[in-house]
DNA sequence: TTTATAATGACTTGGAAG
DNA sequence: CTTCCAAGTCATTATAAA
């Protein structure tokens, strides 16, 4: 059976991947891509497949004809479930709306910004788009397209194979889409490939995602307000403006989103030069518009000025500078609203106790899961709570719209650890690991009590991270305070406390602070002593592995409900295992580990798990896998057939690009490491598919 | 080569103060 | 309500030392 009339969902995407792994030539590209292409593209692919679902496009063209993937009625039911869940716009904004409205209008909009959006969305460089529009006019989209295709063909001469793929991906098309287009048209004919891609993009792109800005913005009150706000400001501070720029290469698009026409924007860019700031450009455009207005004999005061002025507090006498400043801030807010929309972001709970912690009265004893999340297996996903805006909404959306549970481990141990957990486990009748671990520094590290100064009011530690304070810093602190008989002056106290909080330093002697020892970190995180010690691991690497790990007591509390559900033990798929936080948690809960498939890229971490496994006299079976990206449907099915599927899929994907500690590459889920989250989704979906079929 | 060390902010949130 | 400020964050990179 083929893929006809299937509702495409994220689950389906993984099925496509699965089909590829069965070795059919015509789908080999899919397999190839799903592992080598940045997985951020999968997110976009999700949008595409949903759009395709609504479009009721013929499925055969998307996945190849000859697959022997056996779809029985149960599969179709499951797929249907997935679709239903995907269409319930529980949390999310743009992507969902995109899919829903894609059918309504697949034609190209006539407004300037829409037009730019449309073509830029297809992956054409925006400069090229603008030139093409200027050349052909906004009306004739076919001509624009032709121009763009010519330009693209020129720059893609001589490409073949993966180069060809790279080329189209570089243009912004989804990897899977590219693979399919190449597969359909052959490598030789780049033009038809591009056309195919454009067709898909047209389906994918939706007017909802694009700003509602009329090309005739003079007639729009809202746009008028905006323009007026700009025109009214004489002096822009460029750095402020620059901050609001979404992307440095998207100047034209940005201007278009502000409501200017392509023509206006292009002329401004042309006149002001490519390096001009948005402020300079808007100034230029405003000047041009005022001239235009004067030409058209509009002598009256622009009506839209009042909008902001009405809000300006009149009872206070302020200088012009203050007024200007206030005005700019109003504008910044407006821009922010425009850029990010009014999408409601997930709020972190305060206190951060999720659905309940052992020491506080339970707040949630029962919850209703989305339908698609109920089926087997249980899954448990973890990552940092304080991720960039929108990240958790995305994570939730990809994990069947399950609401994340945000918990700070300071309710379980003596150190804070703010994390979000998305899981489909029951939340009733949880129980903690015993004995309850110490929850204050003094209880956890009794030897520090003797040296703890009264002016250091800390009772708990901050988040245990991968780096520790340097010796030089502790020396600076010692020198700063050893000159004083009693308490040092407040300024010194503040300096010391700030550094202690930043580096989690504890008092180990008179005027002596020190970072935590690795075994102290192990203890705080709930691991057995020396869990990460020996076996050729360096001290630095111990800190790193521990800093990246679960807090065992916290995770165990959530997983405790499995004990009654699986009295005979469980089969566990552990992705991004690290030093085995999930395994340790389950073991300490007394849940037998029957078969554990552990996927972990780091060799030292795999050794740590293997060591622990052997030391704890496990009766089950531990299988190592190195790379989640190499874990395909074939391997999974082979594994699952041998022991009958997984009861639990656990994983905390890398947070490198999400955490605030990262000064260099905090790029969100699209980041190099953090995009591995999409592999968690992929593999979870594969497991679901295989288990539903068997 | 491996390991340890030091230098490197941005971004978000909550709460106090006005 | 706005404005301001304090607090906190599963880190990366270059360089020195072993």
UniProtKB/TrEMBL annotation:
<dbReference type="InterPro" id="IPR015940">
    <property type="entry name" value="UBA"/>
</dbReference>
<dbReference type="GO" id="GO:0003886">
    <property type="term" value="F:DNA (cytosine-5-)-methyltransferase activity"/>
</dbReference>
<feature type="domain" description="UBA">
    <location>
        <begin position="159"/>
        <end position="200"/>
    </location>
</feature>
<dbReference type="GO" id="GO:0032259">
    <property type="term" value="P:methylation"/>
</dbReference>
<dbReference type="InterPro" id="IPR030380">
    <property type="entry name" value="SAM_MeTfrase_DRM"/>
</dbReference>
<dbReference type="GO" id="GO:0005634">
    <property type="term" value="C:nucleus"/>
</dbReference>
<keyword id="KW-0949">S-adenosyl-L-methionine</keyword>
<protein>
    <recommendedName>
        <fullName>DNA (cytosine-5-)-methyltransferase</fullName>
        <ecNumber>2.1.1.37</ecNumber>
    </recommendedName>
</protein>
<dbReference type="InterPro" id="IPR050390">
    <property type="entry name" value="C5-Methyltransferase"/>
</dbReference>
<keyword id="KW-0489">Methyltransferase</keyword>
<feature type="domain" description="SAM-dependent MTase DRM-type">
    <location>
        <begin position="365"/>
        <end position="694"/>
    </location>
</feature>
<keyword id="KW-0539">Nucleus</keyword>
<dbReference type="InterPro" id="IPR029063">
    <property type="entry name" value="SAM-dependent_MTases_sf"/>
</dbReference>
<dbReference type="GO" id="GO:0003677">
    <property type="term" value="F:DNA binding"/>
</dbReference>
<dbReference type="Pfam" id="PF00145">
    <property type="entry name" value="DNA_methylase"/>
</dbReference>
<dbReference type="InterPro" id="IPR001525">
    <property type="entry name" value="C5_MeTfrase"/>
</dbReference>
<keyword id="KW-0677">Repeat</keyword>
<comment type="similarity">
    <text>Belongs to the class I-like SAM-binding methyltransferase superfamily. C5-methyltransferase family.</text>
</comment>
<feature type="active site">
    <location>
        <position position="655"/>
    </location>
</feature>
<keyword id="KW-0808">Transferase</keyword>
<keyword id="KW-0238">DNA-binding</keyword>
